[in-house]
Amino acid sequence: MSLSELPDVALIKIFRTLDHIELVRLYHSFQTSKRIQNLIRNCSCLWINIHIKSTVDYHLFTYFCRLLISNALTIRQLI
Known about the structure:
Structural class: mainly alpha
Shape: globular
């Protein structure tokens, strides 16, 4: 069974076990599945500790997320 076959409730429970960097990586890996992307993007319980203003440029934020993903190991060591 693939992730796309699971119900939304099960996916949210799985996604809540991931940290934010892993969640962003997962979001980008599911570019073919709009259902999973929408679930990750719109489920507020997954992003409870991150506050992003609605005026943030989406493309700039995506670029920032890719920087975080590519430097995840270094960031974890610094923290």
